[in-house]
Specification:
Rossmann fold; 9% strand; nicotinate-nucleotide-dimethylbenzimidazole phosphoribosyltransferase activity; glycosyltransferase; EC 2.4.2.21; binds nicotinate mononucleotide; alpha/beta; Nicotinate-nucleotide--dimethylbenzimidazole phosphoribosyltransferase; Nict_dMeBzImd_PRibTrfase_sf; binds 5,6-dimethylbenzimidazole
C-alpha cells in the first residue's frame, strides 16, 4: 500500500510561538484550547503568522455490501439519494459550509448509482459498493490501492487550487459498522464497546448489528495489517479518506477530522504514518457511543461536543470558526508591550 512521507514539524519556532501567545493581552493561558490550536497551526505552517486559505470540505460517499444484512436504520438507497441532495445544495453540510465560506466537494468513491456530471461532484467510483464482509472481502487489493491513490490525487488537486486546510466528511449507509470493526481491531477493544446506534437502530436493531459484526470478525479472524483489515471490512469512502488524509498531512495542510467514521479512517492513517497526528484537529465528539473511546485511544482533545451524529463533515464546518478565531487572535491581538498594559511580575 502506498504510504506518504509525513515530516514531524520542527520545534525551532516553539519558543517564539509560546512567547507570542503568552504575551497577548490576557491572563496567561486564558484563551484555553484556542491557544493550543493556534500553536498547532503555527507549527504545521512553521510560522508566527498563520493563515487559513480556501478552506475545503470533502465528503466521500460509498455503499456497503454489509448494508443488506440490515445493520442500519435506513435503506441503502439513502446513500445515493443523499449524494443527490448534496449536489442540490439541500443537506446540512451544504448549509454549514456555505455559512462559513468553505468550499464543498462530493466524491463518489463507490456509490451504487450512476451520477451525471455536476459542478461539485468528483467521479472516483471504485465499484458500485463494497462486497458483503459477512461472506467475502469488502474489496480487492487493487481496489484498496486505487482508493488510497485516488484520495491522495483529490487532495493534491484541492491543494493546488490554494487550499491549506481540509475537512474530511463521509456518507454511506452501513458505514458505522465498518468503522466499529476498524476501531475494534486497531484499538483492541471488544466489538460490543465499539458498536453504536449509527443512524438510529433500536435495541433489537443494535443487538442484531452486534451479532452480525461478531460474525464478520469470526470470518476475518486473522488480519495481518491495516491493509488486510481494510480489504476485509473497509469501505471505499473510508479507504479513500485515508489516502486523502495522509496526502494532506504530507503537503503540510491542516487536517480536520469529523465524527466516528472519519476518525476510524484517521485511526488507520495514524497506524500507517504516526506523524499525521501533528497535522490533525479533532472537530467534535460524536454522539455515536464508541467515539469517545476512539478519541481517547489517540489522545485527541475534540473541539466541540454537541451530540452530533450526522457525519457529512458537519462537525468540521461547525468547528471551523474556532480555528479562524485561533489564527486571528495570534495575528491581530495586541501584546502587553504594544498596548501598554501591565503584565504580572
Ligand atoms: O459522524 C458520525 O459520528 C456519525 C454517527 C452516526 C451516523 N453517521 C452517518 O450515518 C450513516 C451511517 O450510519 P449507519 O447506521 O447506516 O451505519 C453515514 O452516512 C454516516 O455519515 C455519522
Ligand atoms: C437522511 C440521512 C442523512 C445522512 N447524512 C449522513 N448520513 C446520513 C444518513 C441518513 C439516513
Amino acid at each position: 500500500m502506498t504510504t506518504y512521507d509525513i515530516p514531524k514539524p520542527t520545534t525551532e519556532l516553539d519558543d517564539a510561538i509560546a512567547h507570542k501567545i503568552n504575551f497577548k493581552t490576557k491572563p496567561l493561558g486564558a484563551l484555553g484550547q484556542l491557544e493550543s490550536l493556534a500553536k498547532q497551526i503555527c507549527q504545521i505552517q512553521q510560522t508566527l503568522t498563520p493563515v487559513l486559505t480556501k478552506p475545503s470540505i470533502v465528503v466521500f460517499a460509498a455503499d456497503h455490501g454489509l448494508a443488506k444484512e440490515g445493520v442500519s436504520a435506513y435503506p441503502q438507497e439513502v446513500t445515493h439519494q443523499m449524494v443527490l441532495n448534496f449536489l442540490g445544495g439541500g443537506a446540512a453540510i451544504n448549509v454549514f459550509s456555505e455559512q462559513q465560506g468553505i468550499d464543498l466537494s462530493i466524491v463518489d468513491a463507490g456509490v451504487n448509482f450512476d451520477f451525471g456530471d455536476s459542478p461539485n461532484l468528483i467521479h472516483a467510483k471504485i465499484a458500485m459498493g463494497t462486497g458483503n464482509a459477512l461472506v467475502e472481502n469488502a474489496m480487492s487489493k487493487e481496489q484498496l490501492t486505487n482508493a488510497i491513490n485516488k484520495g491522495a490525487e483529490i487532495v493534491r488537486d484541492i491543494q493546488s487550487k490554494g487550499s491549506n486546510i481540509i475537512g474530511f466528511g463521509e456518507m454511506g449507509i452501513g458505514n458505522t459498522s465498518a468503522a466499529s470493526l476498524i476501531m475494534s481491531h486497531i484499538c483492541q477493544i471488544p466489538i460490543e464497546k465499539c458498536v453504536g446506534r449509527g443512524t438510529g437502530v433500536d435495541d433489537d436493531g443494535w443487538q442484531k448489528k452486534l451479532d452480525i459484526l461478531k460474525q464478520v470478525q469470526q470470518k476475518h479472524a486473522h488480519l495481518a495489517d491495516t491493509a488486510a483489515l481494510l480489504q476485509a471490512v473497509g469501505g471505499f469512502e473510508i479507504t479513500m479518506m485515508i489516502g486523502a488524509m495522509l496526502q494532506a498531512a504530507a503537503l503540510g495542510m491542516v487536517v480536520l477530522v469529523d465524527g466516528f467514521i472519519s476518525t476510524s479512517a484517521y485511526l488507520c492513517a495514524q497506524t500507517l504514518e504516526p506523524n499525521i497526528q501533528h497535522y490533525a484537529i479533532f472537530c467534535h465528539q460524536s454522539d455515536e457511543s464508541g467515539h469517545q473511546q476512539m478519541l481517547e485511544f489517540i489522545d485527541a482533545d475534540p473541539l466541540l461536543k454537541m451530540n452530533l451524529r450526522l457525519g457529512e463533515g458537519t462537525g468540521c464546518a461547525l468547528a471551523y470558526p474556532l480555528l479562524q478565531s485561533s489564527v486571528d487572535f495570534i495575528n491581530k491581538m495586541a501584546s502587553f508591550e504594544s498596548a501598554g498594559v501591565s503584565n504580572k511580575d
